[in-house]
Specification:
The chain has about 70 residues and is an alpha/beta fold. It contains four helices and three strands. It starts with a helix and ends with a helix.
Length: about 70
């Protein structure tokens, strides 16, 4: 419904930027279903989001190292 589409647009969805994983595929998938996500590694933006997506594939030590350094 139109109300559901509007709610998706208003919901703040953050995709964790950590220089690994399939980030752009996730961003594109969210946009296809009507969500306008933000790509960020900023802790305040992540805390302020209604939903946080942590895309990944395989081993996560590189991602965690990147996040700890930011």
């Amino acid at each position: 419904t139109e109300t559901a589409r509007q709610a998706k647009r208003l919901m703040k969805v953050a995709v964790v930027k950590y220089n690994a994983g399939n980030i752009h595929s996730v961003m594109n998938a969210l946009k296809r279903v009507g969500v306008e996500p933000i790509l960020t590694d900023n802790a305040d933006e992540l805390r302020g989001a209604d939903r946080v997506v942590f895309p990944g594939q395989g081993e996560a030590s590189h991602a965690m190292s990147y996040l700890r350094s930011h």
